[in-house]
Design goal:
transmembrane; 49% helix; PepSY-ass_TM; alpha+beta; 4 strands; single chain; 4-stranded antiparallel sheet
């Protein structure tokens, strides 16, 4: 039983801060679509999706804040065929543009402020690139799994002792 208590305590000490950051940023990211502080709110599109990828690229190139010259400069294109709306986000900046899929008109544009939250949540803020997910996220996930198992073992200890005595 000492093993479980000892490692339960030390693992919880080491993963507290990264786990707390993941929880808080996860809660904040839950509300990113509902709160205009994190992502801009755009008016609805006027109709069915009619424009293609070339037209989307032309509209994106017309917005200097996006810094898009070619398709490779685009970080994300979100196409919603049911509503006819298209959202384009450039790689160079956390800036996005909403395009009406029916006619190619710009519905709105603004800064998307979720980049920092997402990088903190994924663990990529602390390291360069994807390695943060494995250096921070994987040990933290395994630590939480161990805490779950050890917590159950420690919690069940009084009942197992009673059963052994009878």
């Amino acid at each position: 039983m000492r093993f479980w208590r000892k490692y339960h305590k030390w693992i919880s000490i080491f993963i507290t801060i990264p786990f707390l950051i993941t929880i808080v940023t996860g809660i904040l990211l839950l509300f990113r679509g509902k709160n205009t502080f994190f992502s801009p709110k755009f008016p609805p599109a006027t109709g069915e999706l009619q424009i293609g990828l070339n037209e989307i690229l032309k509209v994106a190139q017309s917005v200097p804040e996006l810094k898009v010259q070619a398709l490779t400069d685009i970080k994300r294109i979100d196409i919603r065929p049911s509503s006819g709306s298209i959202t384009v986000q450039g790689k160079a900046a956390d800036y996005e543009v909403a395009i009406d899929g029916a006619n190619g008109n710009i519905l709105g544009q603004g800064v998307r402020k979720t980049g920092l939250l997402v990088s903190l949540h994924e663990g990529t803020f602390w390291t360069s690139g994807e390695i943060g997910r494995y250096v921070i996220g994987l040990p933290m996930g395994l630590g939480v799994l161990f805490l779950l198992v050890s917590g159950v073992v420690i919690f069940a200890q009084p009942w197992t002792k009673k059963r052994k005595l009878s």
